[in-house]
Amino acid sequence: MRGATLIVLAWNQWPLTQRCLDSLLASAPAEASILVVDNGSTDQTPQAIGAYADRLRYLRLPENLGFVRGMNAGIAAAPADDDVVLLNNDLVFTQADWLDRLRDAAYAAPEHGIVGCRLLGGGEDDRLFHTGGFIEPEQLWGQQSESGLQELDIGQYARTRRVQAVAFALAYIRRDCIDRIGVLDEAFHSYYEDTDYCLRAAEAGIASVVAGAVTLRHVQHGSTQDDGGFRARLWQDSRRAFAARWQDRLGAAYRGTVLWQGTTAEPAAHAQLARKLVGRLDARGLRMAYAPVRRELLDAQDFRLELAARRTLPARPDAALYCAAEPPRQALVGRRRFALAFGDWDRVPAAWAERYAQCDRLIVPDRFQAQAFASAGYDRPIDVVPLGIDRDYFHAGARAPRRPADRTVFLSVVEHLQRDAPGLLVAAFAAAFDAGDPVELLIHVRPGDDEPAIRATIERAAAAPGAPRITAVFGWAFPAQQRAALIAAADVVVSAQRGAGWQPLAFEAVACGRPLVAPAYGSQQDLVERYGHAVEYRMVSDPSQRGALWAEVDVEALAARLREALERRETWAAQALAQAEAFAAAHDLDASADRLLERLADGGTFAAARMAPAPFRPAELQRPAGDQIVVLGMHRSGTSSVGGLLATLGAWPGPDERLLRGPDNPKGHYEHTELHMACVRRLAAAGGDWKQPPDTAPAATIDAFRREAAAVLDTLEPRRPWFVKEPRLCLLVRELLPLLTRPVFVHVVRDPVEVAESLARRDGMPRHQALALWERYTVEAFNASLGQPRVLVDYAALVDAPFDTARRLHEDLIALGVSGLAAPQAERVADWIEPGLRHGRSHPAALDVLTPSQRALHAAIADRSILTERDARPLPIARDGRSALRAS
């Protein structure tokens, strides 16, 4: 059974190593062994390590060979089938389940090969120093976050996501990744070896990911402090080696040049687009430069923007992209010219249409804005690119300072006196509540020209006799990346804005699981109607724009909504949290960046994109299987028949007294009792069962199941080849992938209508439910085995021609490298499976009851193309509408 070798590399600094080992051992990592590689320490490390001799292995090198050779020595000393986890000795393991969550990320997809995690600073430093990063080709300054910022931890980057590279202060590396691309390159002594390894992996189709569910502490450069410049010399040497290999190749990956003209200061919406999209477009192969439309100070820590701002592009770049509050006053310079724009009115000013007419294409966030420009006479091409939210920041788990428990906090953010209507907001709040109500209106006033007038408006309302609590925050230019904490600190987000322009706060509030109260108008109309609580409004003229109309909320209607928010606080909160994750997934800013890239590239603006390497699949490695067989198939699909057949070939299911027998299958199910019960407990602990599989499970539930299953697999290991079989494994086998060593998956398939009819006879299950369950089990099973060695057994063929099917199964398994199997014997096969006993044969016309996705799945199984599919299939949505399942 596969384990994981945790390799701790140490060189002197025994107190650091001791703290690392103590915290590591306290986390009690299961199915893992610890190996300390001593890189020639001359302090007390060789003597002090003896106190740990019964809990780890110790490998002492004769001298300091450097990080790369030291880690390679550890990899060489690990068991040949183990995954490895490279660990600095200046890590502190503050999370007990860190290894299991890394395993989850490593085996979430077949192409995942390298996994890092979120790393905080040492001690009480709650800044995130590592979330997965990138390297730019000009100066080769590797960054450990997407922006280069060291941000305060508010729960960002909590999901598993692909990155260009991870820092090897901690790196979980799957064994098949090592088998594919080898160990660390000894052209590097220390530094740059991690980015080199991740780039080499990417060229082989292997992904580097960050497991957002893991957060540990890392004493930055603790293992090489007080080194008299040694670290700096190592860095320079490694940089030269890295540049010789990668600098030209990284630069050549750019498809073209783009000058983004805009703002990173104000207004907030346009500033946010620059902050979020410049880096994303750069990562997608566009060499981005940035030029502000007015004087501003860039955040010196925002490496992506600072890099773009200092770049020099050709006098006429491939594309110019303009994004600011006012249309351009000068000609845009670029071979092709684009603008990303939106206005606050039902029709933008005619002057806007004239000034944007120089653009080859106008890009707007929604149909409302497209109509607003067309109504003003803009007759050039308009593309709609919906603007999403950064779901790595804005999600229901975003953390915030403790909110007052004795009141409901309403949050609003205002920037412009007329557009954001703070006067209407405070008037409605005062109409809804009085000083005795358990409420507070928190208004964040963004710095700008209107700040004094907004302040006066709010302070007058707050000072009125009997007024409810109104708190305004002025002059607070807190870091943009902490905006999610501001939203998370509130119970309800409210807007009274007149303007129709795209405002990220409304979208971010929904993604954070906060109820939204706002007028359903302009760019947020669909959002409020579908996910929020709409407020009535009327159309009024904007005095600053002749003939332009915008929306003015009805104060009484807004006051009524605010009272309703207080009265229905718990109900609203539950509804908002329930829809947050699905909303964020459907409104992902990364999808916006993809769409924007498509629009910019349309018409041959840039060179063609390089073909990406095919995603890595473990089955493509030229290595024999590990004599571990996993039988997967839906209930009533014939898995017991195949299990018994494997037993006749010499595969071991475990001791006979441990195998299940039941009245529905007196010959035996060939299911290990302990594994069966572990599967039953796993589904029950997550709130489901085999008939109603849960969509998610607590991490502790997954860990408990993995421990139980590992104990069963340990008993099978002495008798390879062995097999396990349990229909529930279709749903759960992905959780066991870290434990399996080069397994082979045997998929047992049967006509879905026959499965449904069998379930109806045995369990009284309605046909539509049975078919939905068949689809769920089958998709989950094939997704989990994607890219792994696998074969397919058709139950109909097995019953109609048992010996021929047994012979083909034997040949397939032998071809994959399974050893120790006996050739099928006709008498034994016939004794186990009598020909012609297939019950409940369906007529071909019966397949008409299948949904389109079920028919497509059945067809892919019938022609066996499912065995060679490269991508996971989306999980189905139950036809009774009760279960909206996640995408695989």
Describe the protein's architecture and organization.
- The structure is a single chain.
- The chain is α/β, with parallel strands linked by helices and 888 residues long.
- The chain is built from 30 helices and 31 strands.
- Strands 1, 2, 3, 4, 5, 6, 7, 10, 11, 12 and 13 form an eleven-stranded mixed beta sheet that branches.
- α14 (451-463) links the parallel β21 (439-445) and β22.
- α8 crosses α20, α13 (422-432) packs parallel to α14 and α25 (752-763) crosses α26.
- The chain is globular.
The total of helices stands at 30
| pLDDT < 50 stretches | 879-888
What gyration radius follows from the Cα positions, in whole Å? 31 Å
Q: Tell me the major beta sheet.
A: 11 strands, mixed
Give the terminus-to-terminus CA distance.
Answer: 26 Å
Name the shape in a single word: globular
Strand content: 15-25%
Mean pLDDT: 93
DSSP strand count: 31
Decide which structural class fits the backbone: alpha/beta
Q: Percent helix among the residues?
A: 25-40%
What would the keywords be for this entry?
disordered C terminus; 11-stranded mixed sheet; globular; alpha/beta; 6-stranded parallel sheet; 888 residues; 30 helices
Give the topology.
Layout: E1 4-10, H1 14-26, E2 32-38, H2 45-48, E3 57-60, H3 66-77, E4 83-88, E5 91-92, H4 98-106, E6 112-120, E7 127-130, E8 134-135, E9 142-143, E10 151-152, E11 161-163, E12 170-173, H5 175-181, H6 193-203, E13 207-218, H7 230-252, E14 256-262, H8 268-283, E15 286-292, H9 303-310, E16 319-323, E17 336-340, H10 350-356, E18 361-364, H11 367-375, E19 382-384, E20 408-414, H12 417-420, H13 422-432, E21 439-445, H14 451-463, E22 469-473, H15 483-488, E23 492-494, H16 504-511, E24 516-519, H17 525-531, E25 533-535, E26 537-541, E27 549-553, H18 555-567, H19 569-586, H20 589-601, E28 628-632, H21 639-648, H22 673-685, H23 699-716, E29 722-725, H24 729-732, E30 744-749, H25 752-763, H26 767-784, E31 790-794, H27 795-800, H28 802-815, H29 826-832, H30 852-862
Parallel strand pairs: 1-2, 1-4, 2-3, 6-13, 14-15, 14-16, 16-17, 17-18, 18-19, 20-21, 20-23, 21-22, 23-24, 24-25, 28-29, 28-30, 30-31
Antiparallel strand pairs: 4-12, 5-13, 6-7, 6-12, 7-10, 8-9, 11-13, 26-27
